[in-house]
Amino acid sequence: MKRVLGIILLCGCLAMPVRAQDTASSETLRAAQELSAIMTGGTIQQMTSALIGQMWPGIESHLAGKVDAATLSEMRSEIEPLFSKFVNESLKDAPAIYARHFSAAELHELVAFYKSPTGAKTLRELPKITAESYDLIAPRMAPFQQEIAASMQAVMKKHGYKD
């Protein structure tokens, strides 16, 4: 269930409102739109599948004994398109983010890179790498959260606050 929460928080961060860049030229925005289209093209389905694959065992475990296999299967088939739609909608303002961080020339260089064989492979592999990285981090989150809580409690105690 912690994985589900983590994924929801990640999606929430992706969906945060984006401030438009006041100084972005139309060329920069066009280049950013091209880059965004290349970067999100085939990766959204991969990213969606990887994230659902990570969170689904937790959902199944949570619902074990409460619903039958047919219901679980239908639930999964219902959430997959919802998740894809959510990710697509969340990323529609991505070009404005790229335009804030890169010049038009840099964006053109990135477009050229992602059109190269190595860049295309990067786009195919990055969702898998991200999922594998998350698998390394997830088991460490609970102990880390406990460490943070203990540290905060120690500071509060030092300053005279009680639990």
SSE layout and pairings?
Blueprint: H1 2-14, H2 26-40, H3 43-63, H4 69-90, H5 94-101, H6 104-115, H7 117-158
Helix pairs in contact: 1-3, 2-5, 2-6, 3-4, 3-7, 6-7
* H/E element order: HHHHHHH
Would you identify the regions where 5 or more consecutive residues have pLDDT less than 50? Answer: 1-6, 18-22
Tell me the major beta sheet. none
Number of strands: 0
Helix content: over 70%
Structural class: mainly alpha
Distance between the termini: 27 Å
Quickly count the helices. 7
Overall body shape = extended
Gyration radius over CA:
20 Å
| Whole-number mean pLDDT | 83
Residue share in β-strands? under 5%
Provide an overview of this structure.
It is a single chain. This protein is an all-alpha fold. 82% of the residues lie in helices and 0% in strands. It has seven helices and no strands. The longest helix is centred in the C-terminal third of the chain and has 42 residues, at 117-158. It is extended. Residues 1-6 and 18-22 have low confidence and may be disordered.
Question: How would you summarize this macromolecular structure in one to three sentences?
Answer:
The protein is mainly α and 163 residues long. It has helices spanning 2-14, 26-40, 43-63, 69-90, 94-101, 104-115, 117-158.
